[in-house]
Amino acid sequence: MPRFPAGFELAEALTAAARELHGTGTPDDTMHTAVTLAVRLLPDAEHADISEIQRGGRLRSLAWTDETVRFAAEPRQGGQGGHTPHPDWERLWTTPVVRTDDSEADGGGNVLSGLGLRSALSLRLRADRRRLTVLTAYARKPQAFDEDATRIGRLFTAHVSLALDSATVREQLTEAMRTRDLIGQATGILMERLDIDAAGAFDSLVKASQRENVKLRDLARRIVDANSGAGGRGVTER
Fold first, then answer.
1. pTM tops 0.85
2. DSSP readout, 25-81?
3. I need a surface site. Which of 59, 65, 196, 228 has the fewest CB within 10 A?
4. Can you tell me the mean pLDDT for 74-91?
């Protein structure tokens, strides 16, 4: 994909990226596609990752283009020689974009400089009171990301956020359908084994879930699995 500052080519590139993002099946697929596209879209970007930043400073990598940046937000245990996360990341709680022009400007000693990454452009994807989800592009040269790169990054992450929300909703609906089917199977098993109607079987399932402090879905799966393992015999849920 060509490097560009702005214009019609950028619009075409973002449209193509949006199609690719919305063609993914799960949130994980969306994030892994997003980091690959970020390197292709953002001028001078060499690596990219998506990280979750929790209150208190805990960091977790969710997607990455390569092993170099997998640990930019999640250092190897004992492998960074005491490096601390770059302080600019804390600013993401109050601003949607943080640009690091040179990780060695203050003498280094942070994760980015330890990995040889001089520049970073961090763009917030999601935020709530407890955690942030952030897409970050990296480069090995200082001052790699200018205002044009920042503008392209913000446009791109708007598409990523929409695609991620859409994939999350699809995943939740799929899980809801699976849960409904599972509960239906468990209800049918109880109807047969306890010789009761559907309402009574479902009520029995709910009461057992409350009594055992187990999620309804997990209890239903247990009943179905037990029935399958016993060849369809021996279920005695009350």
1. no
2. SSHHHHHHHHHHHHHHHSTT--EEEEEEEETTS-EEEEEESSHHHHTTSSPPTTTST
3. 228
4. 54
